């Protein structure tokens, strides 16, 4: 084994300890929601965006705001409403009567962590304005391009119980989100602790990292080794959602209108890298990818009318695909034998 291979497979204990410090500080304020917190950190490390679905009051806003304080970064929240216009999001040109010149007032998207609350309540023109920021990390105002700060994460929320007067997100925008996470109610024990903390003395979090350190962690994440067999596993999973019959799942063909795009394959690989880094490894394992597969695929699989009439969910179809497509048994066995 060469020195480069030795560094590639060496444990990332220092990085894992730093991530644990960040999570520990956030959990001083946020009770429970361990899986949700883990997915937020995966999105940060992988440089992706997060779509969160859950009823009100489940600490979605508190989580991202607390995380911004722990990372010493900028945080802004936008409440999406039907009367919102793109200028409220990205900014606009303002005329100064005294100087007789126009100046640019940048919108709230110019921040590190952006919370788009109830994103499906805004009309399509506002959603399309956010689309450029998410994909290109830039905004064009009056022909001038302005870049958002790095790192940049959009966490958009949806309320599943109030769908009247909402504008469903177009597939092109939904596909830009690395993951869609479902947030559920806390347990009785967690809710007891929540009530104690909210009604007790205020807890102030301390910054334990900086945005510059987060950028460095993102660079380390891109260096995590992903075996070709794992890449092939991601390709087979995504391909099975597009052509179920070719993958031996003919019974799913009438239930899926459109399968996942190549962004899903990339998201599985990048997400597995981030999860492996959080777990202190310099290489990804099949369980890293399997853990994230439902979150990466559920919003990219478009169900047919037959699936909806049968009351089937995207999660159920993704589970069937994962049961049929086995992960690689030991993707690093040949590397260990060579060592």
Describe this structure in words.
The chain is of the alpha/beta class. The chain has two domains: about 5-215, Rossmann fold (3-Layer(aba) Sandwich), CATH 3.40.50.300; about 225-339, Helicase, Ruva Protein, domain 3 (Orthogonal Bundle). Helices cover about 45% and strands about 15% of the residues. The protein has helices spanning about 5-10, 15-25, 35-45, 60-70, 85-90, 125-135, 170-175, 190-200, 210-220, 230-240, 260-280, 285-295, 305-310, 315-325, 335-339; strands spanning about 50-55, 75-80, 90-95, 100-105, 115, 140, 145, 155-160, 180, 255-260, 300-305. The strands form four sheets. A five-stranded parallel sheet has the order 2-5-8-1-9. A two-stranded antiparallel sheet has the order 3-4. A two-stranded antiparallel sheet has the order 6-7. The chain starts with a helix and ends with a helix. The mean pLDDT is about 85. Pfam families: AAA_3, AAA_lid_2. This is AAA family ATPase. InterPro entries: ATPase_AAA-3, CbbQ/NirQ/NorQ/GpvN, ChlI/MoxR_AAA_lid, P-loop_NTPase. It comes from Ottowia pentelensis.
How many DSSP E strands? 11
Bin the helical content.
40-55%
Q: Output mean pLDDT.
A: 84
Number of helical regions:
15
Strand content: 5-15%
H and E order: HHHEHEHEEEHEEEHEHHHEHHEHHH
Largest sheet: 5 strands, parallel
Determine and state the CATH class of the largest domain.
Alpha Beta
The parts where pLDDT drops under 50 for at least 5 residues are: none
Count of the separate structural domains: 2
Shape: globular
CATH level-four homologous superfamily name of the largest domain: P-loop containing nucleotide triphosphate hydrolases
According to CATH, the fold-level topology of the largest domain is Rossmann fold
